[in-house]
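Sample pair:
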Amino acid sequence: MSELPPLPVTFRPGRTRGILLTAGAAIFVVITAVALLLEKLGPGERLSFILTGALMFGVLALLARVRVVADEAGVTVVNIASRRRLAWTEIVQVNLRPGDPWVFLNLSDGTSLPALGIQPGIAKAKAIADARALRALAEARSAEGPQG
């Protein structure tokens, strides 16, 4: 087993996050510039352009917020529209199979939770390393029990 990362540790798709936030900012700037440069638009139409750009940025920011935070007590999985806190003992298995879009956590209640904070889309090697680190942490922490 590899050396465990020091806790707390945050896993997130850094390149994907950078691309999403950069694209969101660029979209907002371009739409705002268009709204301000078009002379035939009234104030309400300009405002609707700007709000549309802000909405697009907001959606991309939501997509960029995904992460998995591991600490001494457990794991917090932050997905697009949800956040879930898990104790180490709730995590039975950490899976990232070939072709999976992100890591899946098999839980002690028989369900599976997607963890979008570790995804092999742009940085496959980093995602595999992050999944292995989270798996090693889960195995070590589950074996220790709730006392740590």
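The helical segments are 14-37, 43-64, 124-144.
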